[in-house]
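Chapter summary example.
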Amino acid sequence: MKIVLLRSCVGDGALQYMTCFRVNERIAIDAGGLGFHGSPTEQEAIRHIFLTHSHIDHVAGLPIFLENVYGNTAQPPIIYGHPHTLDSLKTDVFNNRLYPDLSHLKPAFCCYETLEMGRTVNVENVRVTPLQIEHPVPTVAYRLDSTSGAVLIITDTGMTPNIRTIVESTPRLRAVFLECAFPEAFTSLAKASGHLTTPQFLAEVREFPKDVSVYAVHGKARYREVIERELAASRLPNVQMIEPGREYDFGSA
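The structure predicted for these 253 residues follows.
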């Protein structure tokens, strides 16, 4: 699998404002910056969008993406999500106020697929399994399995026993992309918004298998340098801050 966190900042490419992972050129996990990355022709390659939850930094680019690719492919993109997430898209985004309701179009603007927690979806030679985690709105993590092993994408989560349970129950685990949103000084804000601080992130990671690569994601842009320093101070050799735009290759799918 080849995984890239799409850049969402003009200028300083290390900063991350929105979340969208591209997997093997054909799959997206979240759509924060999806419609703003690359040309419409490049965007057409993505056929499956798996949303973790309904917050704006994870869905902001979806309407623009759908507009960019509409009518240029034989089948419309498929959007997968928790029932709450898909309902939010229909009532809060495609509502003729924030963005036009184009559900009546022929051919279809997009297709929706409701996810069942723990039930695997097979797309593009990757097995995608949604797993419930904790956040202020219903939110899922994703386990991605291929012939080369498994990868976990756990973005936007607070402290929960689910994280370790998910890691411990994943065979052939190669890597974990885990959120680390705030430095230690912002523990109250992290708790109120359902995110992890650096010490909380490290407490989880120390329980992971030592041969699993761990990438800190979703670091708030204003605090990125502080988060990096706190992570470096841990001296954990398998932990690093993700680099937006860099392709992480975990073997052939």
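To summarize the output: The mean pLDDT is 94.
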